[in-house]
Specification:
- Two copies of one chain form a homodimer.
- Chain A is built from eleven helices and 17 strands.
- By secondary structure, chain A is of the alpha+beta class.
- In chain A, strand 16 and strand 17 form a beta hairpin.
- In chain A, helix 7 crosses helix 9 and helix 10 runs antiparallel to helix 11.
- Chain A is elongated.
Chain lengths: 392, 392
């Protein structure tokens, strides 16, 4: 049997938190002229209801939450989720017997939305950057055409604005999973040894994270190759670790539906000068990012602070698109540390700092830490990586 | 360190398998008057390219695969995936520096699709039951309006028809992960004991599945409550198991990107007569489903075979919507064992048999096994649950 690393915080959230989330959304809706929201993606449904289940991994059934201009949200969901949804703070739970290919919630939605359509109301949905339509496009088109009076607007910025700033209870959960992730990485030298197949190292990392109290370690990617790696999103091979390899593991572990997302590098046996220099440059770029992560600065400022250091060694300009992002109920959330993102940092944003360096002949190295923005500066949620490339 | 249960099959697929998949799709496209497919969901991209990464867990970036009327598919993907995609059988890999909120692949898609629009070609996309649009709806609307000559049609049935029948190499992977899942369930009596918090039992199950060779155990739901449970999709509580509880665990473990999906029930200490009778009825309903799973029968036939047995005890009619489904790269796939699904069973379909029984005062019990349809009858991929409710 396994034991948690630290006493975990309480699971779930108080009803007060859902009231605050809903009222804050409704204030923003009023400002933006949005009469109601229709949401269907897992984090948004969970944000307003507290409904948490892994059942979302089944793509079969759509789920909907409607946020009116005032009052509690309404859940329109498959009957299989009724018992769990009725245990949340939501009162109005409407269900259908799903799957129902010819009417998967469409009649229920039509009934709910028809009065809004008759009034010519504005309905906010998520159709912007980083969103998906988690219902069949054909069903959406059918619904849309039966509610022609409805003015559909994009509420992506509204929703992401709400979710970017975390509550204290959310930060507790994020701190807890980052602590577990840090402890799991600290044990890698025990099993990430010369001769161990990378696949076995990955498996043991997951088992370690679970033993330390993670609910799961759903995201684990990485690489190991002589002198450095060229790809950072692969599943592991069966190749045994060899002296001179650089090993990188990047994990998203979860606790109570919140993610950590960070990585670590090690040299197996020894490291050449180029790898040591890349690591040192990345470590200092990470530090520059953390130091720049203050309220009032923008994501673009963070990107530039990191890039200034990276340019000491990397003249390729890089191509991963950004140097970190938001973190919370999803492995990656808005904002993005990139030239295009002028989001102003605020207290209680939780972010990854993730510089990426191209070097040598097609090699790359990545570093990542997780932070929370405080009143005046950022605090680490992860245990900071050592300043020199650790050797196993 | 952990050791696999059995020598696993080879990872990945031969190029010949991707050639066959593509050519079979192209034959179906020709029959249905579809000139090309545009796909963007993880299983479809993997089906045609072999591109496998957990990076899909990040919602930030869209990914696209285009299947022309002849020749190899074309990948249009974020630069971060270029190295991995270039190691597949795909030659034509077009990338952009993502995320790019104002042009996340839209220019590349427009360039690719404009000649088709000019010819008035028919483009198949997935917009039917059990699908999502894994790109921003706003981007799709923009693309659609810039390619007005293009005739968009729903290729859901085509795609699901291809994926429902598994290749021998896919069945090997599915058999392997079902064997691991069966072995993991066999160990539950060692840690699913009276006094163990359900959360700890779940954690230890995941660690066991990993030790036995699963790549991961991403889906694990269940319940434990006196005499039976009322909900089958919840995360675990911290409540310790008590004598008289019925414990149910339902898991989707993965190996090389393929899922098992089945469950097991146990009584803690003792079981009352009602629970034993429910278990017996479900076990026989499962058997009736397995026996009816022959080429030529339909999913509706399976549903009815199971329902006939369930009706001995359950007069509620149930409400989970179906009694099993397809299984493969996704935890749940088409078809559905339901009255609405007249899919004719064929050799090499992999299915779950999943009857659900309502009994007593708001209780329910579920059973699930995984099978593959053979020439004349079905074979179990899972080790059949014992015919009497096991007591821990």
């Amino acid at each position: 049997m396994s034991y948690p690393l630290t006493e975990p915080p309480a699971r779930g959230f108080s009803t007060a938190e859902f009231v605050t989330r809903t009222e804050t959304a409704q204030q923003q809706m009023q400002i933006q002229g949005i009469d109601a929201l229709l949401l269907m993606s897992e984090p948004e449904v969970r944000y307003f209801t507290g409904f948490q289940t892994l059942f979302w991994q089944s793509p079969t059934r759509p789920w909907f939450v409607f946020v009116p201009s005032q009052g509690k949200p309404v859940a329109l969901i498959p009957e299989i989720g009724a018992d769990l949804m009725r245990r949340t703070w939501i009162d109005d739970v409407r269900t259908w017997r799903a799957p129902a290919p010819h009417d998967d919630g469409i009649s229920l939605l039509t009934e709910l939305l028809s009065p809004l359509a008759a009034r010519g109301d504005t309905l906010g949905i998520l159709k912007g950057h980083e969103t998906s339509l988690r219902m069949p496009l054909g069903d959406w088109e059918q619904l849309r055409s039966s509610l022609t009076g409805l003015d559909i607007t994009d509420a992506t910025a509204l929703m992401q604005g709400l979710r970017m700033v975390k509550s204290d209870a959310e930060i507790e959960k994020l701190q807890h999973i980052c602590t577990i992730g840090s402890a799991a990485f600290a044990q890698v030298p025990e099993f990430g040894t010369q001769g161990a197949p990378l696949e076995a190292v990955f498996r043991e990392f997951r088992r370690t994270a679970l033993a330390l109290g993670a609910d799961d370690a759903p995201y684990l990617v990485g690489a190991a190759a002589p002198g450095g790696y060229a790809d950072v999103i692969s599943p592991p091979s069966r190749r045994p670790l060899q002296a001179g390899d650089i090993l990188m593991m990047d994990t998203g572990c979860t606790w109570d539906g919140y993610y950590c997302d960070f990585d670590r590098n090690w040299a197996i046996g020894y490291a050449d000068d180029q790898a040591r220099r890349a690591y040192d440059t990345l470590w200092r770029a990470t530090q520059a990012g953390i130091d720049a992560a203050r309220p009032g600065n923008t994501c673009r400022d963070l990107y530039q602070a990191m890039t200034t250091v990276l340019n000491e060694m990397d003249t390729s300009g890089g191509d991963v698109g950004r140097l970190g992002h938001g973190l919370g109920m999803q492995l990656t959330e808005q904002p993005s540390h990139a030239t295009f993102d002028n989001t102003v940092l605020k207290e209680n944003m939780v972010l990854t700092i993730e510089p990426s360096l191209s070097y040598g002949n097609g090699l790359m190295m990545v570093h990542e830490e997780d932070i929370v923005i405080g009143k005046h500066a950022a605090s680490l949620l992860t245990e900071r990586a050592p300043p020199q490339l650790p050797v196993i």
